[in-house]
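Encode chain A's predicted structure.
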Amino acid sequence: MHLDAYPADAAPWPQAVAWSRAELRHYLAAAAGPGLGALPTRCPPWTVRDLTVHLAETFRRYADLLARGRAGDLAPPFAPGSLPAENQRAVDAFGGGDPAGALRHEAERFLGAVADPAEMMPHQFGPIPVGLQVMFGLNELAVHHDDLARATGRSRRPERPVVTALAAMYGAVYGLPGDVGDDPWERLLRATGR
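Encoded structure for chain A:
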């Protein structure tokens, strides 16, 4: 992981925030179909409900970490290798209620609080710019929306500027396997295990 390879000014700002809100709306509309909650996704063992809870808890963590960073604490929230366990712990600990409502609330709590893409905030790999965290959130929404395809029967491809920005971010931070001429969305899906 090369967090320093994606400086704050690399994030398309403020478009990344607007794109995140649009992807959130698209995800929520797709996940709201009747009877979808218990259906499996491309993220086993998670159901549509579990995936929505995961996104809600992820954005809750982002908002909480942003507030913590603003209070002067930039320490990592957990060990770098424990993200999968943290994600599962958060899904298991969800207290019930409306996952879609929780996702809507937590995503807006984070996205509504960001203003400066260069502001630093805590991350498991060390402090990162808010702009990069917004891009990570956009990636979560876009890729997990496509994960709903197993339940909905419809894949999701974000708009070209979103795909281009996500591929650039992912390539800079993680490396994006595949040939340069390959479809960047397909490369991103493969890189994230799809």
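The mean pLDDT is 95.
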